[in-house]
Amino acid sequence: MKDLRNKKVAALLSGGVDSSVAVALLVKQGIRPDLWYIQIGPDRDMTDFTCTAEEDLEMARAVAHKYQLPLQVIDLHRDYWEKVVDYTMSQVRQGLTPNPDVMCNRLIKFGVFNERVGKDYDIIATGHYATTEEDEAGRTWLCTSPDPVKDQTDFLAQLQPWQLQKACFPIGHLPKAEVRAIAEREHLSAAHRKDSQGICFLGKIDYNDYIRKFLGEKPGQVIDRETGKVIGMHRGLWFHTIGQRKGLGFGGGPWYVVEKDMERNILWVVKGYDPMATYSDHFQTTAFHWLTTNPFEENGAYMTENQQLPMTIKIRHTPDFCPVRAKLLKNNGLDLYTERPLQGVAPGQFAVLYDEHKHRCYGSGEIRLVP
Question: Which residue of 55, 149, 181, 359 has the fewest CB atoms within a 10 Å radius of its CB?
Answer without folding.
Answer: 149
